[in-house]
Design goal:
626 residues, alpha+beta, Elongation Factor Tu (Ef-tu), domain 3, DNA polymerase, domain 1, seven-stranded mixed β-sheet, six-stranded antiparallel β-sheet, 21 helices, 35% helix, binds flavin-adenine dinucleotide
């Protein structure tokens, strides 16, 4: 066996979103990293859609930004159109999203990785991990090279035994045009891990010159958008248009008649797919009462001839994809650069991980990203970041960074992953967070700054910028303490159908009325806000956050009380080798599931699927006797 002389602190396997974040944060914290990847020219690649953020995912990008991740700042630089989504709903679920130039994004991320003095990028395929006395000590490449290390972060994405399906055509690959990875699954299984099979799909890429743009509808981003990153000081992004078209009854008929040619339906694809990100076949089948679906035409990079057809993910044969699309107004003569396809791949049940993302059975081995059964760039990046931080904490023999469900969407995601069955690819939604009123995109700074400081995840000036954003919100809240007289607000209140003020009252009190928004309040209240604050790209957002704190004060208080009530149970530790099988008063299902998941706390045990409140009472009694 060949041996590389270098001893790296950490080997990061994979250069996707998870791998890049893991390597960069650990390198920033002074660790030496070998980033081993199948193709070094694809580091930072966006596998699928040209967008970052979106519902709940925008919150994750914000959280990453406070915790030292690069996704938000990179998206601000590579973004082509920015929008705050969900504005018709409560502010707690507003989420930033950006269309992104994929090539520019990849170039920035790979530039960061390649230029970091602590990161060595190596081309190779990891086929085994070396384990001595239940702790990781190196990785083995396909050519026999052994690289010693103190910790490994595995971020293999969709590449493990990847199998692409286009109709009956099958291609062994990790992504279209890239080879898959074979051998590492089998090696991990031999170390005692259990794996499963999942699938996901991607839409065709269209030739821009084959679309009749006169028949499409233009969609633009916000005029004064908010950036993802607290580190973005000047922000004047372009507002590149996207376009929409609508499928009709003829398209639906063609897809319905050919459903059995889709491997997703013929039973040819073994893995389970994402229900919430349905293929066009799924939409036609499951929502058969709808004759029309909107498709989004998104340019993949600046001056791109390649258009991403969002909403038409499919694994139908290429000629059927074309036939169906050519019934759509504007796409009558459409040509493909690449057809849509589905991919099947191995994943490892995340129930085998601790909340630090270290495996329960092999010390120093961390899993992050799609290998844990998730789907999406943001979910992958967040796990990569946490695994990268905790791999360096592990080497320093220091406590890991973990996030709770009331602290961050990232905390919700990891807790869900390690306690719930992975029946389909996991994607974040606001509905997964029971404390979502506390988890606003606009308060990520206040939620996570303290932890970020504790783990030294940013430098001094970066912390200062986050503090400035927090101070901006406090300044607006301070302004809302001022009084408004009836003649300063009554005309507005009348137009809103609100009762008129009889006496002067604090602006906050007026703002609590349901139909009054902060924009309705007189400008003089905010005239003292300092120039620095007014010129910040986060100026508008400081008003959004201040308004949320005023309007939701009752709900916020209630959720905080719930958190406090739960905390006693939540953090109650369960000993590492606790034998659930010995507790006869637990239900059979609870004994089986708890033995499999091995929760670290009573809180985690509560969320294991199949465990009832009665089981938890039994467990609480047994634990109190230990
Ligand atoms: C076809 C397709 C469709 C998708 N559709 C969607 C979608 O609709 N919505 C959505 O949100 N997300 C979608 N995704 C998922 C999204 O792209 C991923 O969730 C995300 O990019 C995963 O990031 P990752 O870092 O975990 O892995 P990846 O970005 O897949 O990166 C994996 C990395 O690991 C390397 N690697 C793998 N095995 C080895 C090995 N043994 N040795 C060395 N290197 C190795 C690879 O070279 C690669 O660099 C799709 C992905 C694909 C491929």
């Amino acid at each position: 066996m060949k041996q590389l002389i270098n001893l790296f602190d950490i080997i990061v396997v994979g250069g996707g979103h998870a791998g890049a974040e893991a390597a960069l944060i650990a390198a920033k914290r002074g660790k030496t990293i070998a980033l081993v990847t199948l193709d070094t020219t694809t580091v930072g690649r966006m596998s699928c859609n040209p967008a970052i953020g979106g519902l709940a995912k925008g919150q994750i990008v914000r959280e990453l930004d406070v915790l030292g991740g690069v996704m938000g700042h990179t998206a601000d630089r590579a973004g082509t159109q920015f929008k705050l989504l969900n504005r018709s709903k409560g502010k707690s679920v507003w989420s930033p999203r950006a269309q992104v130039d994929k090539r520019h994004y990849e170039k920035i991320v790979s530039g960061n990785v390649f230029s970091h003095e602590n990161i060595t990028v190596l081309s190779g395929e990891v086929v085994d991990v070396v384990v001595i006395k239940n702790a990781v000590s190196g990785a083995v490449l396909r050519d026999g090279t052994k690289i010693p290390c103190k910790a490994i972060v595995l971020t293999c994405g969709t590449f493990l035994n990847g199998l692409i399906h286009i109709g009956q055509k099958k291609i062994r690959a990790g992504r279209m045009g890239e080879s898959g990875a074979e051998g590492i699954t089998e090696s991990l299984v031999s170390h005692g891990f259990f794996s499963g099979r999942l699938k996901t799909g991607t839409p065709p890429r269209l030739d821009k010159n084959s679309v009749d743009w006169s028949k499409t509808t233009i969609t633009l981003g916000d005029q004064n958008p908010t950036p993802f990153s607290y580190q973005t000081i000047t922000f004047a992004p372009p507002n590149v248009p996207c376009f929409t078209v609508k499928t009709g009854i003829r398209c639906k008929d063609i897809i319905s008649k050919n459903l059995l040619q889709s491997p997703m339906y013929s039973g040819d694809v073994g893995g389970v797919g994402p229900r919430y990100c349905p293929s066009i076949e799924d939409k036609v089948h499951r929502f058969s009462h709808h004759d029309s679906h909107t498709l989004f035409l998104e340019p993949e990079w600046a001056d791109s001839d390649q258009i991403y057809l969002n909403g038409f993910s499919t694994s139908l044969p290429e000629h059927i994809q074309l036939m169906a699309l050519r019934t759509v107004g504007g796409l009558e003569n459409v040509r493909f650069f690449r057809p849509g396809y589905a991919i099947e791949y191995d994943f490892f049940s995340p129930a085998q991980l601790k909340s630090s993302l270290e495996t329960k059975d092999i010390a120093g081995l961390f899993f992050a990203g799609q290998i844990n059964g998730t789907s999406g760039y943001e979910e992958a990046a967040a796990q990569g970041l946490i695994a990268g931080i905790n791999a360096s904490q592990y080497i320093d023999n220091s406590e890991p960074l973990t996030l709770s469900r009331d602290e961050a969407y990232i905390g919700v995601m990891i807790d869900d992953l390690i306690t719930k069955d992975t029946l389909e690819p996991y994607r974040m939604f606001t509905s997964r967070a029971e404390y979502r009123i506390l988890l606003r995109f606009s308060n990520a700074h206040s939620r996570l700054l303290k932890k970020s400081k504790k783990f030294s995840l940013l430098n001094g000036s970066q912390f200062d910028r986050i503090q400035t954003a927090i101070d901006g919100v406090s300044a607006v809240l301070g302004a809302l303490d001022k009084s408004i007289s009836p003649n300063q607000i009554n005309t507005r209140l009348k137009s809103l159908g609100e009762t008129l003020l009889k006496h002067a009252a604090p602006a906050k009190t007026v703002l609590r009325r349901p139909s009054v928004s902060i924009d309705h309040l007189p400008n003089f209240l905010f005239s003292d806000l300092n120039k620095h604050h007014k010129s910040s790209p986060l100026y508008g957002e400081s008003f959004i956050e201040a308004e949320a704190r005023v309007k939701y004060v009752g709900y916020i208080k209630r959720q905080r009380n719930q958190v406090i009530k739960m905390q006693g149970q939540e953090n109650r530790p369960i000993p590492r080798n606790f034998n659930f099988k010995n507790i006869n008063s637990l239900s059979n299902e609870a004994r089986e599931k708890l033995s499999l998941v091995r929760p670290q706390t009573l809180g985690q045990a509560m969320r294991v699927s199949g465990v009832t409140p009665a089981d938890i009472s039994v467990l609480a009694v047994v634990l109190s006797a230990i």
